[in-house]
Amino acid sequence: MPEEWLYFIEGQFLEIVFYLFAMGMGIRCLAFLVNIFNSRMFLYQKFTWKSTGKLLFLLGNFLLPFHKILLKQPLYTILRYIFHACLFIIPVWYSGHLNMLLDTRLGWYWEPIPDEYIETATLVFIGIGCLFIARRIVFSRIREQSSFMDITLIMITLLPFITGYWYVNGTLDHISLFEEYMWYLHVFSGEVMILMAVFLFIRTRLDAKRCVGCESCCISCPTGTLEAIETANKREFLYSHYQCICCGTCVSTCPETAAKLRHEISISLFFSFIGKKKINEVVINTCAGCGKTYAPDPQIEKINQIFLVKKIASPETLSYCGRCKKLFSNHMLLPRDG
Amino acid sequence: MGFVILIHADKCSGCQMCEVGCSLKHMKECNPERSRIRMIKTEKNGQYDFIPSTCMQCETAMCELVCPVKAISRNSETGARIIDETKCIGCSSCSYACPFGACFVDRKISKAMVCTQCDGDPTCVKVCPSGALEYISSDQVNVALKRAASQRIIDATAVAGLTNNPASC
Lengths: 338, 169
Known about the structure:
The complex is a heterodimer.
Chain A: H1 2-10, H2 12-38, H3 40-44, H4 49-61, H5 69-72, H6 74-93, H7 95-106, H8 115-138, H9 140-145, H10 148-169, H11 176-198, E1 200-206, H12 216-220, E2 226-230, E3 234-239, H13 249-253, E4 259-265, H14 267-271, E5 277-286, E6 293-296, H15 297-309, H16 322-331
Helix pairs in contact in A: 2-11, 6-8, 8-10, 10-11
Chain B: E1 3-7, H1 17-27, E2 38-44, E3 47-53, H2 62-66, E4 72-74, E5 81-83, H3 93-97, E6 104-106, E7 111-113, H4 123-127, E8 133-137, H5 143-159
Antiparallel strand pairs in B: 1-8, 2-3, 4-5, 6-7
């Protein structure tokens, strides 16, 4: 019985996984198109050649994200580039994979990268992956932010590479159990990773402690993924995951570095094709003159803070809306002490 | 030394030509809501007051201080505040900080707007029919007031029967 299972994993299941992967990606593309054509951006704003070109350019940002973080943490960002490049290049250009998957089935394959380069790249990849896990565990600031899922995600990504390296080099062959099953372990972990990629989303998150609610991420978003709606005395930020092209404009725009793009594996997100999720909300102040809502409370707080630091008396006009300010400041009707 | 748009509120007739001219010049449409100079109308005991309100060219500008991306700077020639539209992210911090409500965020293009004095040739001053707006160097602002004050002194001394010759005093 176990033998049959092993053959199933090695043969049929691999094909099923590839079909599931293709299907999942197809569904995601379809959901993306449906969401894009239903978006407020598409329905109410004209799409010109210039804006379409900008969108296509930003779509490429997903592959090579030049975010503001590149200047802040250059080493981490460069390691991240190498990690993602290796993740794609190693399995696709490894001669063993090409022989097994393409040559025997289709009788055709592309030129593989020499094995010694692949081996070095795999070692580099595993090293960087271990560094990322260590970083999440060691630094307390990052440990607070990261969940158990983040570490599991890196582990699942690393497993096929570690098992593949051991299988090719025969490192653990002196243990009979591993000698026998290492190949199946490698195939199975690879299948798990491919299936995981279907449910992998890159989501924008707004840090509730840092966000001042200035709405500039929603203004700069090229696809209208992030939206701000105003209820009675709150400004709510909505995010639709299928519309996002992971361009990172929100990350580079946010003046408070509150916006972040993070991986997330979620099956429920995959199946909610239409719909928006509330990711943050801030309280809006009311004008002292006319009683209408006019500015987010954290932003006024921040402006006050700037005046405190620069040792300038913050103007009384901060608690008035634009129209009331014009009326009062021009007519000298502002309530003054004494 | 910079230039300012001096406002003579007593001369303003409330025709809103400045708003129309400004929005036509900068926004290419006739929409007072998108103008950088606004005419404020108030009513008191049946008497209407019209006061044009625009950027006051503060020496320490609140808008410049609070801008998180440092998009606001000074034009070296005229001293007017200019906003770099490529840098501006539309967070409206400047509009909340401005004590006069002169800075605002345009809802159509989501960029902050402030009076740029049209690079030394203000349209609002040119179109104003009643002469309520005047474009002068900021060190000349109170010269007219000083002249008026000295004129009043001369008149008062003339009424009191005295001459304005210091020798006879």
